[in-house]
């Protein structure tokens, strides 16, 4: 807890030495922080958690129209409102994009076109004609990704030969084999296992007669670019294309000796993973696929299991006037940890009722059951936190790291319970460290890059390797716990961060847009370890100063994932300015102009109600494929950054936190799986 009595006298002493303008600046800073605190506290639910909207692109609404049509549940009200939302997001060139300000994207445009046809829009309507022209410009329906083509095959408008083979027999491959479902990322696994059941049965739920896509082909031959051979004779792409053809030949055989066993295993896996979760993986694509798989296995729409899973998807609906939009998932654990962390930095006492109530809710939601992560990390007790309300099979390192940092500052009335939860969470996070020294999100050593060449890997997230931002999160927690940089686990992680840093100085951001996010997290983590004066950190800070916008803010578009030359280019946003400020504070001098300019930007941009406006998408799902807008980012990160600036300016001592010594968690490689 902050030493408040000592801290409160510092501004008074300091004010005596300040000019009138500087005093006004300080007063404005305090007012902005207080308004932000008041607003954030007003958003806490009676149960103790925070949850903001999670926004994505129109592929969700388009897929939902398709989903409800297949199930026979597309009522007129939802159809009209979903279609309204899709139409209003159409770009002037006729297409749809996957992030605000981005160009038209083929899959989003094809899905929107098909969905609007299902909603009753005539192909001859002007907006549909523009969409069709844009689809041809982007390569035609034949150039869409495998998941778009698979849905169209399920609807009977494309042949199954257009879909990459996803044979159920894959689930029989043991975990030690180089190709198995546990060598895929957790989200891919949750998406693909239901698709195995669909591919094995190849159901066809015929869409209305007017929903064909013949007019969307650019090449009448029907050639699928995804199945074209690599120019190099020997390559992983060609290897998997050969396998794809062999699997498809296998599909034509009258006798498939392992098929029944594989389907039983896939069904068992699916049914097990539907328990202890609010939908498979608690993410939209996997949940939709799981309902399709249940239908393919003979479960009726009214079966209690099917109805429950359909209900979980309906929970993602947000009705807004005459539109209806979908969330890809919900983020209460993440949002709650961020809110607590920012409020703590803003000076809320450790025993504040809001923090105690939030801590109690987080403790109730610690994952204490097994999950997929145990396959590559056996012999370890569970103890992490997931992203969503309930997703017990998939706790993740990033959420757990933030939760640990938020909880360790709370004066909880049951300290023994808090300590036990923190101890379990710390042990779990440490056990998830990869052999390269870094941390991934959901699995350990999930880094088989050759899998990115599998034909159905075109969602650009086939694996879950170590990333700089997740590694920084763990290091920040350990640094706040006063673990020394000499600890072998920290030393290996710091070496990973050094290797991961780009030549210019920034770090890539896997889960936030993009280099500003990655750089901010890495600098803050290294500061807690007292490594922020190293040349690499100073190079990163110099980069931040160089890319700061003239208005004092920072901005970066999702386009930087497609073209690294666009890193840190974009209009200033509140969340990215906060990230830039956090990085500068970690590596530089608090009085430097770049810091003052960023602070001024955030002060000037706050609205009367204590919030900041932000239209841009600054969160990342799958780079280059799927992006997320966290509606709380624009408020929690500026609050944290400004509070940290104020605390450093006033010389406020660091919060006292509950800590564990490194020797309480001795390093071990005993459970490390060799590959």
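Sequence proposed for the structure above (675 residues):
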């Amino acid at each position: 807890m902050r030493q408040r009595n000592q801290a409160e006298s510092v501004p008074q002493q300091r004010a005596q030495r300040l000019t009138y303008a500087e005093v006004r600046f300080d007063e404005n800073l305090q007012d902005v922080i207080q308004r932000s605190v008041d607003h954030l506290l007003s958003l806490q639910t009676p149960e103790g958690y925070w949850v903001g909207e999670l926004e994505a692109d129109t592929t969700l609404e388009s897929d939902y129209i398709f989903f409800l049509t297949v199930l026979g549940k597309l009522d007129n009200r939802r159809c009209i409102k979903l279609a309204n939302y899709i139409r209003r997001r159409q770009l002037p060139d006729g297409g749809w994009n996957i992030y605000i300000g981005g160009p038209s994207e083929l899959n989003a445009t094809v899905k929107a076109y098909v969905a609007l046809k299902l909603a009753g829009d005539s192909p001859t309507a002007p907006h549909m004609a523009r969409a069709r022209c844009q689809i041809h410009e982007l390569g035609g329906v034949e150039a869409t990704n495998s998941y778009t083509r698979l849905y169209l095959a399920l609807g009977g408008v494309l042949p199954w030969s257009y879909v990459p083979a996803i044979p159920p027999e894959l689930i029989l491959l043991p975990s030690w084999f180089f190709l198995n479902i546990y060598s895929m990322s957790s989200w891919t696994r949750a998406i693909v296992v239901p698709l195995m059941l669909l591919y094995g049965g190849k159901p066809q739920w015929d869409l209305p007669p007017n929903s064909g896509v013949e007019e969307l082909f650019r090449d009448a031959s029907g050639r699928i670019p995804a199945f074209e051979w690599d120019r190099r004779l020997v390559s992983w792409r060609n290897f998997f294309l050969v396998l794809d053809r062999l699997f498809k030949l296998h599909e034509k055989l009258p006798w498939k000796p392992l098929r029944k066993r594989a389907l039983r295993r896939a069904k068992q896996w699916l049914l097990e993973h539907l328990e202890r979760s609010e939908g498979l993986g608690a993410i939209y694509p996997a949940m939709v696929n799981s309902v399709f798989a249940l239908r393919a296995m003979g479960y009726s729409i009214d079966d209690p299991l099917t109805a429950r899973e359909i209900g979980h998807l309906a929970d993602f609906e947000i009705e807004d006037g005459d539109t209806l939009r979908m969330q890809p998932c919900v983020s209460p654990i993440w949002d709650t940890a961020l809110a607590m962390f920012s409020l703590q930095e803003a000076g809320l006492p450790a025993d504040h009722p809001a923090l105690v109530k939030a801590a109690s809710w987080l403790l109730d939601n610690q994952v204490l059951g097994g999950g997929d992560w145990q396959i590559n990390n056996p012999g370890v007790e569970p103890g992490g936190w997931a992203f969503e309300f309930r997703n017990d099979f998939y706790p993740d390192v990033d959420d757990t790291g933030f939760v640990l940092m938020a909880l360790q500052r709370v004066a909880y009335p049951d300290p023994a319970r808090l300590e036990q939860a923190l101890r379990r969470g710390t042990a779990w996070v440490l056990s998830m460290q990869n052999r390269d020294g870094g941390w991934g999100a959901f699995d350990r050593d999930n880094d088989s890059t050759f899998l990115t060449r599998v034909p159905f890997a075109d969602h650009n997230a086939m694996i879950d390797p170590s990333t700089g931002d997740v590694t920084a999160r763990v290091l920040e927690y350990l640094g706040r716990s006063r673990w020394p940089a000499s600890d072998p686990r920290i030393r290996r992680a710091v070496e990973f961060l050094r290797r991961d840093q780009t030549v210019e100085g920034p770090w890539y951001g896997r889960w936030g847009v993009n280099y500003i996010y990655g750089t901010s997290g890495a600098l803050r983590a290294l500061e807690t370890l007292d490594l922020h004066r190293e040349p690499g950190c100073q190079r990163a800070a110099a980069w931040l100063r160089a890319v700061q916008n003239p208005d004092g803010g920072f901005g970066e578009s999702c386009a930087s994932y497609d073209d690294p030359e666009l890193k840190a280019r974009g209009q200033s946003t509140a969340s990215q300015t906060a990230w830039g400020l956090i990085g500068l504070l970690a590596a530089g001098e608090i009085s430097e102009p770049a810091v003052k300019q960023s602070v001024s930007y955030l002060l000037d941009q706050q609205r009367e109600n204590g919030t900041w406006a932000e239209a841009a998408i600054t969160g990342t799902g799958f780079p280059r494929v799927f992006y997320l807008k966290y509606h709380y980012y624009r408020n929690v990160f500026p609050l944290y950054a400004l509070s940290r600036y104020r605390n450093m300016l006033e010389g406020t001592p660091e919060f006292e936190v509950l800590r564990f010594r490194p020797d309480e968690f001795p390093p071990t490689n005993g459970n490390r799986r060799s590959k």
